[in-house]
């Protein structure tokens, strides 16, 4: 069994204890998320509060690919977080990643600093009367614009992947999570509007955000709104159609 354990220099003092925690992952910490694909646990080590994400064990083909051809999700998450921080974009601080190999990738973990956030973007979708919602949407749009200006195409720019902290002075901080699917490239206007599609925006949200993005980018509101609406509705229609087909198949069986 081969291991690859990389820890950020700022956390080198807990390297031994963190490595031990990773090898005993099933026994330690408290669950934050226990999904079919990935599991996240929170642990405390020498006063540091950390989140450990264990990625789903890949199948035989993926296992080979992740050892010899493509970087693992854990390694990508760590490296992408460092890039975001270099750009001045907030994300929970990347502490470490761990990979174990045995004729392919067997296990992989990404460790980040725990962030005490107030809510995530999903709240703004489900609660139209959420306090200061319009201002939060405007600032979130500015945040997304900064992503695009830095050439960050966050492929999982979806409601659960942005944590929000209320600073109490009418300003908000936004933290990206679930980082393993990104591309770093020049973002055309069409790519930028396409990047909003997964956020499941309502008509009102699209109007607010299109107006703000148009100001940031220097495009007309009409053009920005039309393209943002086009991609958002196309994505929602495809997702709803897929759900309907699944429901019909289930009822048929």
Task: Indicate the CATH architecture of the largest domain.
Answer: Orthogonal Bundle
**For the largest beta sheet, what order do the strands appear in spatially?**
1-5-6-4-3-2
Helices, by number, come to 8
Determine the strand fraction and express it as a percent band.
15-25%
Distance between the termini: 44 Å
Mean pLDDT score, rounded? 93
Uncertain regions: pLDDT < 50 for 5+ in a row?
none
What fraction, in percent, of the residue positions are helical?
Answer: 40-55%
CATH topology of the largest domain: Transferase(Phosphotransferase), domain 1
Could you spell the SSE succession in H and E letters?
EHEEEHHEEEHHEEEEHHH
How many beta strands in the DSSP annotation? 11
Task: Give the radius of gyration.
Answer: 20 Å
Q: What is the C-level CATH assignment of the largest domain?
A: Mainly Alpha
The quaternary organization reads as: single chain
GO molecular function: kinase activity
Organism: Aequorivita vitellina
Protein name: Lipopolysaccharide kinase InaA family protein
Keywords: Kinase, Transferase
């Amino acid at each position: 069994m081969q291991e690859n354990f990389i820890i950020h220099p700022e956390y080198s003092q807990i390297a031994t204890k963190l490595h031990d925690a990773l090898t005993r992952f099933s026994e330690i910490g408290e669950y934050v998320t226990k999904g079919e694909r990935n599991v996240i646990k929170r642990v405390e080590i020498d006063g540091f509060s950390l989140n450990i994400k264990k990625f789903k064990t890949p199948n035989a083909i993926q296992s080979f690919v992740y050892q010899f051809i493509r970087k693992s999700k854990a390694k990508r998450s760590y490296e992408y977080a460092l890039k975001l921080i270099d750009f001045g974009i907030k994300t929970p601080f990347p502490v470490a990643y761990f990979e174990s190999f045995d004729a392919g990738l067997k296990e992989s973990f990404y460790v980040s600093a725990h962030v005490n956030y107030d809510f995530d973007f999903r709240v703004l979708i489900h609660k139209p009367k959420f306090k200061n919602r319009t201002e939060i949407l405007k600032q979130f749009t500015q945040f997304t614009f900064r992503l695009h200006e830095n050439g960050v195409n966050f492929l999982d720019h979806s409601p659960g992947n942005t944590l929000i902290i209320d600073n109490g002075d009418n300003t908000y901080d936004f933290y990206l999570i679930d980082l393993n699917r990104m591309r770093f490239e020049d973002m055309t206007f069409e790519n930028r509007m396409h990047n909003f599609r997964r956020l499941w925006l309502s008509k009102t949200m699209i109007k607010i955000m299109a107006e703000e993005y148009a100001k940031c980018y220097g495009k007309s509101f009409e053009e920005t709104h039309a393209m943002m609406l086009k991609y958002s509705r196309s994505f929602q229609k495809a997702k709803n159609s897929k759900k309907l087909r699944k429901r019909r198949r289930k009822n048929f069986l």
